[in-house]
C-alpha cells in the first residue's frame, strides 16, 4: 500500500449524536478527520483544531448555540463546515476566522454582532447565509469568496476594512443603518449580485476602497434620518460597474465625492438629487448608460470632470455643470446634448433644449 493510501486509511469519521459533545469529539480528532453531527442543538462553542471537517444534517437541523458571551466557532487553521447553523448571542459572532483556509457549504452563520468575522486567512463559501445584528460579514483583512446565499446586517450587510472580497450570485438585503456593502480600504468584485431595499445606500466605497461589478442590481435605497438614499456612494473611492442597474433610488442613482467612477452600460434611475452626481473633484468615464428619473441626468460640481460617450439622458435638464468651479463634461461620440461649458466660461446649466426628447 502506498504512503498516500496509508494516510487515507488513517483518517476517521467521528459520529456525534444529538446531545453529544462537539468539543470532546474535536479533541479526539486528528488533522484530516471528519465530525458528523446528528440533527439537534449543541449548546457549546468550539475552538476548532486545524484540519478538521465538520458536517451537520442540514442548516436549521443541526444547530450550534454557544453559551452567552462566547463566539460560536473560532478557527486559526484549515477548517471545513457544511450543513449546519451556528447562532451566537449578543455582541458575539457565529464564526471567527483568525487565519488558515476555511471552506463553507450550505451553512447559516447568525450572530448578535456578526455572522462571519474574517481577521486573516481565506474563506471560500457556497450557499452561505450571513446574518448579524451589526454585520453579516465583517472583514478586517484576508480574502473571501462567496457564491450563492445571502447577507444581512443591522449596520451593514458586509463591512470591509481591508483585503479582498468576491461575491457571485449573492443577495444583500436590508434595511441596514449604513449600506448593504461598505468598503473602506479593500477591493470587492461583484458578479450577478442583487441588492434589495438596503437602507440609505446600496454600495459604498470610501478612502481607497474599490468596488468592481458586472450584472449588479441595486434597488430601493431609501431616505433615512433625513439622508437621501443613493443606490451607490463613493467618498474618495473607486466604482466600476458594467451591465448593471440602479433603480428606485430616493436620492441619486450614484453620488461620488472625489475618487473615480466608470460606468459602462448601466441603467440608472435618479431620485430627487438627480441621476449621477459628481462632487469635489470626482472623475468619471461614462459610456453607453441610460439615465432616467427626476433629473438632472448628470451633475458635475466643485471641479469634477466626466467623459461621456453614447449615453442617453432621459431627464430634464440633461446636464448641470458648475463651469465656474472648473467642473467639465467632455462629450464624445454618440452624445445628443451640447457641450455645457463654453471655453470662456458661460452659463452653468445646459439649456433645456439640449436635452433629448423623452421616449
In short:
The chain has 359 residues and is mostly beta strands. It has 2 domains: 13-161, Single-stranded right-handed beta-helix, Pectin lyase-like (Pectate Lyase C-like, 3 Solenoid), CATH 2.160.20.10; 174-359.
Whole-Å distance between the termini?
75 Å
Total beta-strand segments: 37
Structural class determined from secondary elements: mainly beta
- Roughly what fraction of the amino acids lie in strands? over 45%
Gross morphology? elongated
Number of helical regions:
2
Mean model confidence by pLDDT: 90
The largest sheet is: 24 strands, parallel
Helix content range: under 10%
Measured on Cα atoms, how large is the radius of gyration?
A: 24 Å
User: Which segments are poorly predicted (pLDDT under 50) over 5 or more consecutive residues?
Assistant: 1-10, 344-359
How many structural units, i.e. domains? 2
